[in-house]
Amino acid sequence: MSRTLFINHTNDVFGAETVLLSIFKSINTDRMEYVHVLEPRYKKTNSDFRRAAMECGVKNIISLPYKNLGGGIIRNFFVLIYNIYAATRTALYVKKHNIDTIYSNTSVTCLGCIVALLTRKKHIWHIHEPLTEYYISKSTLPVLKKLFSYKRNKFVFISRIHEKEWKNRFHNISDSCIIYNPIKQIPPFLKKPSEKIVFGYIGSLAVRKNVISLVKAYNAYTTDHIGSSHLLITDNDGDAKKDIHDLVEADKNLKNHIIFTKERNIGNLFKNIDILILPSYSETWGMVATEAMSAGIPVIATKNSGLTDIFENNKEVVYIDPYNISDITNALISISDEKTRTDIANNAISKLNAFDFNSNFATHIQALLR
After folding, report:
1. Could you tell me the pLDDT band of residue 188, with boundaries at 50, 70 and 90?
2. CATH code at 208?
3. For a Cys-Cys bond, which of 295, 320, 352, 369 suits 186, CB 3.0-4.6 Å?
């Protein structure tokens, strides 16, 4: 393994960070001395990410003040100016510790590529985000285009649909590969028999997650299935939260069938649902979907998802058109059949075991870091 400096974009632990932590876990103990980690310096001196990285065996962790791309033109200009100090310090660190490879976790982490340009090192850019305004502002695109032209960039995407989306926008992405995310295995568990089916949505209440269409589709479903089900929705934050609550509060039928929950533990959430629904307009992958599959829960998911790379429609997943409410309603109806649910859940577990995501992830990451 080459000496690698991993640059994180936050000192919290979210989706992209769990993937980065999985990389650390895949590295042999005797190679941990080659692992160096840089995190942004905020108020917390012992961040959640730092603690998690140390639990994985990482010893070389430094903090510097730097910011990520995002927002308007003026903000991005000041981000680049602000990062000069961190870029200079990091470049000196790279030379002092004979770092061979710089790894950036997420597309908005511009510091890594800037340091790679200064030191002429190999740069791995692991991109997790979809190419949407929510993640990548329009004023960020020209900056990324310039940085993407660095000849020693190696891009990592998490699905074919994800890679295609970015390559269609940035024609200077040449050296790239796909590495599917590892899966947090949640063993299947026995549930208490219930007369009611519980559909579940787990995620933020952002507009891009398309929960309003799910609620409308579920409302149509209940007209022919009154009292036979519930829809459980995680009451997280998001720019559509108020609209979703208003929609439910205005309809007596929805109020009787929809349950909002503050529960955050994924295992507890899975214990309380029979079917997971991922209705987003677009998902580069959908980690919660594969976690649900591992727990034996059948999944309805957007057809605009990286899941389509591996999982077959109406066999291991039921795919929906997120722009078609009737299509979502029909999916709810079809999966209400107990045999259909059982077959899809069992087929998905078989596919997970056959593909062996975690082993494949470790193998491809190790090859990348040589």
Report:
1. confident
2. 3.40.50.2000
3. 295
